[in-house]
Design goal:
By secondary structure, the protein is of the alpha/beta class. It has a single domain, classed as Metallo-dependent phosphatases (Purple Acid Phosphatase, chain A, domain 2). The chain contains ten helices and 13 strands. The strands form three sheets. A six-stranded mixed β-sheet has the order 5-6-9-10-12-11, covered by helices on one side. A five-stranded mixed β-sheet has the order 4-3-2-1-13, with helices on one face. Strands 7-8 form a two-stranded antiparallel ribbon. A hairpin with a 2-residue loop joins strand 11 and strand 12. The longest helix has 19 residues. The N and C termini lie close together (5 Å). The protein binds fe (ii) ion (2 copies). The site of one fe (ii) ion has 6 residues, from loops. One fe (ii) ion binds next to loops.
């Protein structure tokens, strides 16, 4: 079974992020996949998100397509009267309309392989221990004039640790619900499941914002079930392929294209579609 994953298309951020979309579709079409996974951060605009999913659905890709939303997807910047929970529900509906499996809503099983997923969130457990910022400071998501934009646009009914634990519990429940009927489990999250995958620069404010990368509980949930062999994620815009215990951790993001990549867009799209066989 050949699985392909990419994430963080961010088509609203730069013209190049929009221009690269057909190249990503072409890379996916040519890859001969049995499963295609998008690990979140397409666009805060629900219509644009739907349009992106539709482009894949209308392509010659002929395999199951799985999706978990990213933090930018649940932003309510264009719908300030709703909560992120409501946006999240709307995304689930859009996914189904566009023939993508919303992994958050339900695990997916193909040929005895289980696919579980969640957006995940952060509980500040990835905060760098060498700094002594308070919990209140991390909750403010601001440091020295730099702002983590979830503070403006992510509106959950709960604190960040509560939301992170809500999604960790949902993932644990998904894994529990399928583990007796599958031979292997692939987990997809948007937020980063392992602190080992978070890069420190040793400078502020960068290191402060590590607190918003993910949660230790996400990775722990994956490591405690031996059937989980791969954890795919997005959110950090640096490609990662790393072994953590029994789990292969893969992040394969497009990221912000404020500057043109050194290779052409077609090559870049191919490079940022990570494919692997199980
Ligand atoms: Fe992103
Ligand atoms: Fe993200």
């Amino acid at each position: 079974m050949k699985i392909g994953v990419t994430s963080d298309l961010h088509t609203d951020v730069t013209p190049l992020n929009k221009q690269i979309l057909p190249h990503i579709v072409e890379a996916v079409e040519k890859a001969g996949l049995d499963i295609f996974i998008l690990a979140g951060d397409l666009s805060p605009n629900l219509l644009e998100l739907a349009n992106i999913l539709t482009v894949f659905t209308e392509s010659s890709l002929n395999c199951p397509k799985l999706f978990v939303p990213g933090n930018h997807d649940i932003w309510i910047s264009e719908h300030p009267d709703i909560t992120s929970e409501q946006k999240y529900e709307a995304i689930t509906a859009v996914c189904r309309e566009c023939d993508f499996q919303p992994l958050d809503a339900m695990p997916f099983v193909k040929d005895g392989v289980g696919f579980c997923g969640t957006i995940g969130w952060y509980d500040y457990s990835f905060r760098p221990k060498k700094y002594n910022f308070s919990g209140q400071q991390y909750a403010s998501k601001q440091l020295s004039g730099s702002v983590w934009n979830d503070s403006n646009y992510a509106k959950w009914n709960g604190t960040d640790p509560e939301i992170a634990h809500r999604f960790e519990n949902k993932l644990r429940e998904q894994i529990r619900s399928i583990k007796d009927s599958v031979s292997q489990i692939i987990v997809t999250t948007h937020h980063v499941p392992f602190q080992e995958c978070v890069q420190s620069r040793g400078t502020l404010p960068w290191d402060f914002f590590s607190a918003y990368m993910g949660s230790q509980g996400l990775g722990k949930t994956c490591l405690e079930e031996e059937l989980v062999t791969h954890v795919l994620f997005g959110h950090t815009h640096t490609p990662i392929h790393q072994q953590i215990g029994n789990v292969t951790a893969i992040c394969s993001p497009i990221g912000y294209l404020h500057q043109a990549p050194t290779c052409n867009l077609s090559t870049y799209a191919q490079e940022r579609l990570t494919c692997f066989e199980i």
